[in-house]
Amino acid sequence: MDAITRIQQLGMPRRNNELWTFFPVTKIPVQDYASTCTESEFADLVEKETDFAALLPIAKGTKPMVQNIADGASEMAMLKCNNDFGHTILNIGKGAKASLEILDNKVVHEIAAERFDINVDEGADVEIFFANPASDVPLRFRHFRITQAANSTVRFSSIERGNGITRVSIDCFLKGEGANFEIRTLNKLNGTSESHHRLHIYHEAPRTTSTQFSRNLLDGKSNASYDGSVIVEENCTGVNSSQLVNTILLGEESSVSVKPILKIYHDDVECTHGNTCGELDAEQMFYLVSRGIPKETAKAMLMASFAKELFQALPDTPAKKRLLQQF
Predict the structure, then answer these.
(1) What's the rounded Cα separation, in Å, for the pair 64 and 166?
(2) Predicted pLDDT of residue 1
(3) What does the angle CA 146 – CA 150 – CA 151 come to, to the nearest 5 degrees?
(4) Which residues pair with 126 in a beta bridge?
(5) pLDDT tens digits along 211-263
(6) What proportion of the chain, given as a percentage, has pLDDT over 90?
(7) What's the rounded Cα separation, in Å, for the pair 249 and 256?
């Protein structure tokens, strides 16, 4: 089956589809597709895919860029799509270390969509991150399909501050014992901008771990959503999973929606989730202003502290340095 046929089967996204619960689906323009879709090597993936955004780059006939990182290698790379639609395949070898920064294509069109298929072999250590300046692209999709072997680690970190609507979707499959997936996301939004995250983390082996930590700073009429699912399969002893979403609403009309989902089919696991929503701490603001710090400066200091704390636990790598430089 090709991607165009699969999209036709699924139809355009609707609000009653749980993958798109919080997304303004009416903003997705109707698409024209290539006359043929010849990526037959993805037939099995396409047939099982239920996410329109994951299928879109393939349906557009995008030629995939394939990058292989050898066993034991250590590499840094910047990935940038040269047009509106991109498909990148990364194969990370055993014991390899990779730092991958994703850059925006700055050409402004109606919609941009990228797909990343990332295969991480045993013992590899990978960081994936992006912290691009605010973009004027009206609608941007990024989909990641991450497969991890035993004792591998993937750290995914991002800062979103676009002027349009963004959606990041992630399907992560922890297939080997000891695999670890960590994600840290910050939405710093204002105006009418929107950022939506949708995750499915599949624990398919014993003693796998996953950490989800998201923070939002929302001003104006901005809107953010976080839809995170953790699925623990049978016989997956010793799984540990956590999810935490913290939001500060800076505008009276800003909003956030959070939907944690736990599907656990084994009883020897530890899975938690939490969600907080509020304003900047009034006592901290009073303390800073009473010391002669202007109100707007004090506000900026508290916002920066809130954001930086999200990334402080990262190891001292290029990703951490790049993310903390933003504040």
Answers:
(1) 22
(2) 77
(3) 100
(4) 98, 154
(5) 999 999 999 999 999 999 999 999 999 999 999 999 999 999 999 999 999 99
(6) 82
(7) 8
| Tokens matching residue 288 | 């800073």
Tokens of 274: 């939490």
Question: Terminal CA-to-CA distance of the chain, rounded, Å?
Answer: 46
Cα dihedral sign for 120, 121, 122, 125?
A: negative
**pLDDT tens for each residue of 117-144:** 999 999 999 999 999 988 888 999 999 9
Tell me the pLDDT tens digit for each residue of 294-310.
Answer: 999 999 999 999 999 99
**Torsion angle, alpha carbons of 283, 288, 291, 292, to 10:** -130
Model confidence over 158-180: pLDDT tens digits?
A: 999 978 999 999 999 999 999 99
- Average pLDDT, stretch 42-48? 82
Please tell me the distance from the alpha carbon of residue 86 to that of residue 60, in angstroms, as a whole number: 9
Closest CA relative to residue 27, chosen from 9, 41, 15, 42:
15
CB 227 within 8 A of CB 195: no
Which of 269, 86, 103 is closest to 174 using CA atoms? 269
Give dist(CA 11, CA 318) in Å, integer. Answer: 41
Distance, CA of 7 to CA of 51 (rounded, Å): 9
Q: How far apart are CA 149 and CA 52, in angstroms?
A: 27
What are the structure tokens assigned to 82, written together? 């040269």
